[in-house]
Amino acid sequence: MEERIIIIGSNGQIGTELAIALRAKFGGKQVITSDIRDPQIPDSSGPFETIDVLDKQSLRLLFTKYRPTQVYLLAAMLSATGEKYPRQAWDLNINGLLNVLDLSLEYNVNKVFWPSSIAVFGPHSATVNTPQYAIMDPNTVYGISKLAGERICEYYHGRYGLDVRSIRYPGIISWKAAPGGGTTDYAIHIFHEALKNNTYSCFLSADTALPMLYMDDAIRGTLALMDAPADALHIRSSYNLTGISFTPAMLADEIGKILPGFTMTYEENDPRQAIADTWPDSVDDTEARKDWGWEPQFTLADITSDMITNLNKIHN
Ligand code: AKB
């Protein structure tokens, strides 16, 4: 069967690279990118539509025009920006999801992908190797919206049979497109500043461990989940997934091995610290490994050297 895939929110950090991967796999014209913003990396190999996921009428026209077999919904407001605009974060993250789930049912979409996050965990969740099923008491609007979104996805699967699939992404590190408004973004900014100034002022403390994933692994994992047979997937809320966990100090050490003399200072009282403090240090992704063969490939050393090699090409 020929796939027609719509990516909503295709111009952010993940969407940009997912579009490249999906177009390589299914053909440029089979993948319709859409966003409220212009592309970070223009790509004329397939259609692009300007769309606001909260405008259900326009979204309906998009579904009518392309009759998608698969939909990826990536439009969202992340943790740090969400704390500045809680009402808008809730609206975008929840009503955007409901619009897409409803239209996917109405238009008989075969598969829907929606990303959740480690932000679904909170101050009372286990912090080390946080299990799939843990106490979940997120206290950011982003985390609350992701947890509600997970429950809604599972509900649409159980109640209506919609084949919706999801991953709880950790921090995602990449060099092609800029991240936007997350707590884990320090792990990207650090590379740009290291190459420009050989120093970085980090908004998280030296010992704040967080689960992270390199973009190549994130894309490979997302496509593997979407390729898995439906009956192999017994989690319809969202799968825990991780690559490696590290602290800012560990990342600075690794960068210093490639860029001698690199220094790091630490800011105090950044509001993102309070968010990071409620998130897991590491997560247990056994269920993803069991159900659809998840296995990360990039170590901290691999990520560091790949980021520096690629950003060097851009900076020079
Ligand atoms: C954020 O920091 O808000 C995101 C996330 C972990 O979901 N990168």
From TrEMBL:
InterPro entries: Epimerase_deHydtase (IPR001509), NAD(P)-bd_dom_sf (IPR036291), NAD(P)_epim/dehydratase (IPR051225). One of its GO terms (biological process) is L-threonine catabolic process. Gene3D superfamilies: NAD(P)-binding Rossmann-like Domain. Residues 5-234 form the NAD-dependent epimerase/dehydratase domain. SUPFAM superfamilies: NAD(P)-binding Rossmann-fold domains. One of its GO terms (molecular function) is L-threonine 3-dehydrogenase activity. It comes from the Bacteria. Belongs to the NAD(P)-dependent epimerase/dehydratase family. This is Nucleoside-diphosphate-sugar epimerase. It comes from Parapedobacter koreensis. The lineage of its organism: Bacteria, Pseudomonadati, Bacteroidota, Sphingobacteriia, Sphingobacteriales.
